[in-house]
Design brief:
Layout: H1 25-37, H2 45-54, E1 59-61, H3 62-72, H4 82-94, E2 100-102, H5 103-110, H6 114-121, H7 130-145, H8 157-160, E3 168-173, E4 178-182, E5 188-189, H9 194-205, H10 208-211, H11 241-250, H12 255-262, E6 268-270, H13 272-280, H14 283-294, H15 304-315, E7 317-319, H16 321-332, H17 347-360, H18 366-372, E8 377-379, E9 384-389, E10 393-398, H19 409-421, H20 441-460, H21 463-471, H22 486-493, H23 496-505, H24 520-526, H25 530-542, H26 553-561
Antiparallel strand pairs: 1-2, 3-4, 3-10, 5-7, 6-7, 8-9, 9-10
Helix pairs in contact: 2-6, 4-5, 7-19, 9-11, 9-17, 11-14, 11-15, 13-15, 20-22, 22-23, 22-24, 23-25, 24-25
The protein binds glutamic acid (GLU).
Glutamic acid (GLU) binds near residues 191 and 224.
């Protein structure tokens, strides 16, 4: 039979999955089994995790655990799971078949990281249903893959060599859930995507006030490498070359080590060849440098040519799509790297950076991008787009062909489609999102709460509570993880009045099936509630599923109540 603790965080009986006692047969059995063996002892988190993964078996093959882990979005290489993975490897070596773990061995492996693992399996991460989310991402990836327009930058050979077919998307959530699709392990240069990062380092290192005594905060309305300053003879903002060069002169710390920390110690390299080529072909940047020097834009005592050298070097820093998604996630997470937990940047530095990315990050497309996508982002000439969904995730898109304004063709398509599907736009309304998906936990939590209240009222036979819910336009047909509805619960408990209210007033579907295929009628029969059986049979005879099917159950509720 089904023996599976789903870890959905539903209610308040099972201390692991928190599934409610009237809907969680699993917890019932887990408790039974454990108390048979150890009377009086409550299951530990490790035991509950074991039963979740084992699905009724006595032993778990390691790959089953790893597959289940991957489905939560966690990677086995996550630094936060280091102990668990090391002990797992050692433990497996000592088992007879090198593969399976019993409950005792499993416990030994997971206990050092049990908090993180429990969070993952209890779906407490920001994107609880990670697999369904990533399958959408993969679809968007495939769609953009078919695009063929755009030109690969060719002003230096190190960029010209890239195939126009390269295309990669990686994401990392603020809880360190990872997903990656396409050419995500190929190193490429950050180029202008480094501008927001070094600006963040500069603000972190000094202060907002100090940095902005040298650089403005306003979109320039001009090409990124224009030789032009604002009315105060300062660069317009840190996302255009003039501003980024001045910003480079403010940095005293080791930028590379900051970048490495932002990337959670994943790949950050350096292309010396790109650096040399950038310097050789960098006449415009030299011109800007001299102009900035003439206008006294640098702090006193600055050696302009060595600033330019550092500027070119920073452009030539290499990342992979994967490692850069962690950098973006550090920005999404207020400056704390999600996979190491280390604070890299101050919240203020991150907020400033996101604000400027939002208004100035996409060259001369910035305004339109802010309008259509509504998310902070920065693109670079190598084809990268660093995209941040604040408090949710960081994304790196990479594909070398660029449109006329210098943004990655596939990247722009992906970002646009992403926000069309999910309510990630800064000004998407998070409460009433009629057409878009909200993959975030809060939404899920609210649903979970309302399902708990609904099923609890049905369980206790509280018709007046149900009336209130219906009036507040709660979905009276909603299901818990086991696809149980209020009608199932009321039928099983023999609450005829509740059953009638749900059917008469709320016009709920009388024949929903739960995950075991049972209808409310089956429940009433099983528990011998003959009056409920009779009522349900009568409804089923008259039930026409097409009736009012164009209305949501909320609308049906209101129809019957007002
Ligand atoms: N190396 C380029 C420059 O400084 C960067 C171009 C870019 O990515 O926007 O002009």
């Amino acid at each position: 039979g089904a023996f599976y603790c789903p870890g959905q965080g539903l209610s308040s009986c099972c201390s692991f999955c928190l599934t409610s006692q009237w809907t969680c047969p699993t917890m019932h059995r887990v408790k039974q089994q454990l108390t048979e063996r150890n009377p009086g002892i409550l299951p530990s988190l490790e035991d509950l995790l074991f039963y979740t993964v084992a699905e009724g078996q006595e032993k778990i093959p390691a790959h089953k655990f790893l597959t289940a882990l991957k489905a939560t979005g966690l990677r086995s290489g996550d630094p936060r799971l280091k102990e668990c993975m090391e002990i797992l490897k050692e433990t497996l070596k000592k088992t007879p078949d090198g593969v399976t773990l019993d409950r005792h061995l499993f416990k030994k492996c997971v206990q050092s990281n049990i908090v993180l693992l429990t969070q993952a399996f209890r779906k407490k991460f920001v994107i609880p249903d990670f697999q369904s989310f990533t399958s959408h991402i993969d679809q968007l990836y495939e769609k953009a893959k078919n695009l063929s327009g755009g030109q690969v930058a060719d002003y230096i050979p190190q960029l010209a060599k890239f195939s126009p077919d390269l295309w990669a998307v990686s994401l990392c959530t603020v809880d360190g859930q990872r997903h990656t699709v396409g050419d995500t392990k190929v190193p490429f240069c950050l180029q202008s995507c480094v501008k927001p990062l070094k600006y963040a380092v500069a603000v972190h290192d000094h202060s907002t006030e100090y940095v902005h005594s040298f650089i403005g905060k306003e979109p320039s309305g001009l090409r990124f490498n224009k030789l032009f300053l604002n009315e105060d003879d300062k660069p317009h903002n840190p996302m255009v070359n003039a501003g980024a060069i001045v910003c480079t002169s403010l940095i005293q710390v080791k930028v590379m080590s900051f970048l490495k920390k932002m990337a959670g110690n994943e790949y950050v390299g350096f292309s010396n060849a790109t650096f040399q080529s950038e310097r050789e072909s960098g006449d415009r940047n030299f011109a800007i440098g001299y102009y900035l020097k003439e206008k006294k834009c640098f702090p006193e005592g600055t050696d302009m040519t060595s600033v330019l050298d550092l500027y070119f070097q920073l452009c030539a820093i290499e990342v992979t799509c994967e490692s850069a998604s962690v950098m973006a996630a550090t920005l999404a997470n207020g400056g704390i790297c999600p996979i190491t937990g280390e604070r890299v940047l101050s919240p203020e530095a991150v907020r400033n950076t996101l604000s400027l990315m939002h208004s100035c990050g996409m060259y001369d497309f910035s305004g339109q991008f802010a309008f259509h996508v509504g998310l902070p982002s920065k693109s670079g000439v190598a084809g990268g787009i660093l995209l941040v969904v604040p408090n949710v995730m960081g994304i790196m898109c990479w594909s070398p062909p660029l449109d006329k304004l210098g943004n990655s063709v596939r990247g722009i398509q992906f970002c646009t489609d992403l926000v069309e599907l999910f309510n990630f736009h800064n000004y998407d309304n998070l409460r009433h999102f009629a057409k878009k998906h909200d993959p975030r936990r809060e939404g899920g939590d609210q649903r979970v709460k309302s399902v708990i209240n609904l099923l609890f009222a049905a369980y206790t036979g509280d018709v007046s509570a149900l009336r209130r819910f219906a009036l507040s336009s709660m979905d009276m047909e909603q299901r818990d993880y086991d696809s149980r509805t209020a009608l199932h619960v009321a039928a099983a408990e023999g609450h005829l009045e509740v059953v009638r209210f749900l059917l008469d007033a709320c016009k709920v579907n009388p024949v929903p099936k739960d995950r075991w295929g049972n209808t409310p009628l089956d429940e009433a029969v099983q528990f011998g509630h003959h009056d409920v059986v009779a009522a349900l049979q009568q409804y089923q005879e008259n039930y026409n599923p097409a009736d009012g099917s164009d209305k949501t159950s909320n609308e049906k509720n209101l129809d019957s109540l007002l």
